[in-house]
Amino acid sequence: MYLPPQFDSANPAHAAQLIRQHPLASLISNDDDGMPFVSLLPLHLEQRGDTMVLLGHCAKANPHWRYLQQRSGAVVSFLGPQAYMSPRVYPDLVRVPTWNYLAVGCTVQATLVQDTVSKDRLLKHLIGDHDPAYAQQWRDLGEEYQQRMMAGIVAFELSVTRLQCKLKLNQHRPEAHLRLRAAYAQGGENERALGEWMDLIGIGHGAAQ
Predict the structure, then answer these.
(1) Cα dist. 176→94, 148, 199, 208 in Å?
(2) 20 to 30 A from 173, CA-CA: which of 20, 32, 147, 181?
(3) How far apart are the first and last CA of the chain?
(4) How buried is 138 (Cβ within 10 angstroms: 0-12 exposed, 13-18 middle, 19+ buried)?
(5) Contacts (Cβ under 8 Å, ≥6 apart) of 181
(6) Mean pLDDT of 186-204
(7) What angle do the packed helices 189-201 and 177-185 form, to 10 degrees?
């Protein structure tokens, strides 16, 4: 992605936090005609030593798993909170609006997960992320039903080979930080989340840039 240096976070903890808070990803790779093919999927992040690995699955009817099998290179994109930024936060009038957002881009290598034990482990990670109370219900459904459900999906692991984290929060315009932070504090869920990230990286309260 386009990543000006002022918006580039080199801290992998920022990327990990965004992935875990906003796990619905766009998985993008080429189809058999060479065109980009996109699937929207929730992914679970694992840290294996120095390598980030994203775990997920798609329906067997979705051809994306075949594209990954044939061409393992892919891109994964996560979008965090995003919101409009009014030029009224600037002390001068010669300004234009923009849009602030947080995003993570990953270049990955895909490996299909074929065996039932690994599929079950992957599903339990996703259940643990989003609905831990369902775990017992899943166990109680019985092995036959579980096997039938798992036969209808294709699971995969995506090893991250390149990581980009973009925190676009107007870092390069300190004259607007205090008013922008105040405006976001009065906004909706996305605006408040962006304001919290301004605090996290030290802008908006007169902190050092």
Answers:
(1) 13, 56, 14, 14
(2) 20
(3) 24
(4) middle
(5) 195, 198, 199, 203, 204, 205
(6) 94
(7) 140
| Residue spans of beta strands (DSSP E) within the chain | 24-30, 36-42, 44-48, 51-59, 73-85, 98-113, 153-168
CA separation for the pair 86, 105 (Å, rounded) = 26
Q: What is the pLDDT of residues 33-62, one digit of tens each?
A: 999 999 999 999 999 999 999 999 999 999
CA-based angle 47:121:103, to the nearest 5? 40
Give residue for tokens 């994964």.
76
Helix (H) or strand (E) holding 180: helix 177-185
Pair of tokens at residue 6: 């002022």
pLDDT, tens digit, for every residue of 108-137? 999 999 888 899 999 999 999 999 999 889
CATH number of 5-173: 2.30.110.10
Per-domain residue ranges of the chain = 5-173
